[in-house]
Amino acid sequence: MKTYKYKVEGVEYSVNIDEIEGNVAKVTVNDVPFEVELTERIRPTGSAPKKVVVATPAPKVEVAPVAAAPVATASTAAGAGKKILAPLPGTITSVEVAVGQTVKTGDTVVVLEAMKMQNNIEAECDGTITSVCVNKGDAIMEGAVLVTIG
Question: What's the pLDDT score for residue 47?
Answer without folding.
Answer: 54
